[in-house]
Amino acid sequence: MTAALLDSLRAIVGDAHVLTDGDLSAWEQDWRKRDRGRALAVVRPASTEQVAAVVKACAAAGVSIVPQGGNTGLVCGSTPDASGRQVVLSTKRMNAVRAIDPANLTITVEAGCILQSLQEIAEKDGFLFPLSLGAEGSCTIGGNLSTNAGGTQVVRYGNTRELCLGLEVVTAEGEVWSGLTGLRKDNTGYDLRDLFVGAEGTLGIITAATMKLYPMPAVQLTAWAAVPSMEHAVELLGLAHRTLGAGLTGFEVMGRFALSLVAKHFPQQRVPFVTAAAESADETPWCVLLENSDDESEEHARSRFEKLLEHAFEAGCVSDAVIAENLTQARALWHVRESITLAQVEEGLNIKHDISIPVSRIPEFVRVTDALLAEKIPGVRMVDFGHLGDGNLHYNVQAPAGGDAKAFLAAHEEEVNTLVFDSVKSFDGSISAEHGVGSLKQHKLPHYKSPVAMKLMRSIKGALDPQNVMNPGRVLEA
Ligand code: FAD
Ligand code: 2HG
Ligand code: ZN
């Protein structure tokens, strides 16, 4: 049976694109190296028709499929399980731009298009594609859509879902749904597009998408501010909304310890207001990175930014600040922010919580949850940072200094997760703001979503994928 399936797959995509031997770790191992599965084969189709044929062949053989884009997901959703019975379907060869419609402000691309390529193609035509995240050099638009990725410009442009107008999808039965309409208005029944966005490959395979473009702002300025407390960071956010209006396109918060890890592991980077030791009480507990996009001129943008920071100093919610003088400085500041995840990798295994809470309640959440954790596991180190403008914190827990991180995770991961997620629930938050559920959190979901929500989700899965071919064990239990 397996040999017959492999023969069919080779006939569909060509021998060279069905990988079964050699080092398959790039497809079998997740980005954080938390999970190493084993694939029956890695299949690399080049067209929607090939994807449909692969799905039909796998479904007929009773073999499940794990769709994979850039494999940068952080919740173990894009790698196979250990059974050796799953096919990884990589979309990487499907990366063409199908169309740009400048009047409609849309671009239609295939699912395997790398996010950074999409940004660059849009920019060449004078447009902005505003999705932006640390993994943009390797993640794909299909993966972004399937996780409904967030990133650093959500405060102005929304998540990937808000940027998507249409999809082409291969269903779990191997049929092609062509929904690449590019329409901004279409009230003709259930929104199929929105079912597939954020489904993490459990309902079908996204093969192409029509995405929104925006006019490129005349100028983008970046500022970095030291703030005395999380309360002050929230106050600064309110001021920024009022002063910059729609010009506020980024508002990131970073804790002192998170930044100290960047200073420690990447000493060539200059981290404003924080040192690698991060021990001095003189060092700011939090920093904020702000981005101001302006359609008039640099002068206009700068004067609005200065006005905002002046008000913030007067109100006591900023203790120090710098505005980047040029693009190189702005990029260096963003690079520090985007390096926190990598600095955490250097520091050792950690427990990630990608949570959202109403912005107004974040300071209290951090205070209460920090205290609960410190009481339960003395010495744990909090790596807090994230998209404060969206109420999204990466509330990550690093093992106590000098300890064995692997042993720490084995002993404490489940209790730390339960403590943090219970606290999130008590603040009316979500246990996954932007990374998704994958296989890492699927067992937690029924505890934090209502029974009715879980029943509806299972009904949708059952209706669209009755054979459970698509990414089983992700989002919902297998
Ligand atoms: P993959 O990892 O390959 O897959 C992710 C999920 O989507 C899997 O469940 C997979 O089965 C499914 N999938 C992939 N392609 C398809 C398809 N064509 N059809 C159906 N299902 C599919 N995420 C954020 O939201 N915001 C951030 O700021 C952010 N920053 C990051 C920074 C770093 C350094 C890293 C490593 C990750 C970051 N991420 C962030 C997480 C990750 O980059 C995103 O989840 C991204 O959207 C995943 O895209 P991908 O192509 O790598 O998808
Ligand atoms: C980010 O915002 C990403 O940089 C990754 O979502 C978060 O590493 C993390 O926990
Ligand atoms: Zn994030």
UniProtKB/TrEMBL annotation:
Residues 35-216 form the FAD-binding PCMH-type domain. The keyword Flavoprotein applies. Belongs to the FAD-binding oxidoreductase/transferase type 4 family. InterPro entries: FAD-bd_oxidored_4_C (IPR004113), FAD-bd_PCMH (IPR016166), FAD-bd_PCMH-like_sf (IPR036318), FAD-bd_PCMH_sub1 (IPR016167), FAD-bd_PCMH_sub2 (IPR016169), FAD-linked_Oxase-like_C (IPR016164), FAD-oxidored/transferase_4 (IPR051264), Oxid_FAD_bind_N (IPR006094). The keyword Transmembrane does not apply. This is FAD/FMN-containing dehydrogenase. GO terms for biological process: respiratory electron transport chain. Pfam families: FAD-oxidase_C, FAD_binding_4. It comes from the Bacteria. Its cofactor is FAD. Keywords: FAD, Flavoprotein. GO terms for molecular function: catalytic activity; FAD binding. It comes from Pseudorhodoferax soli.
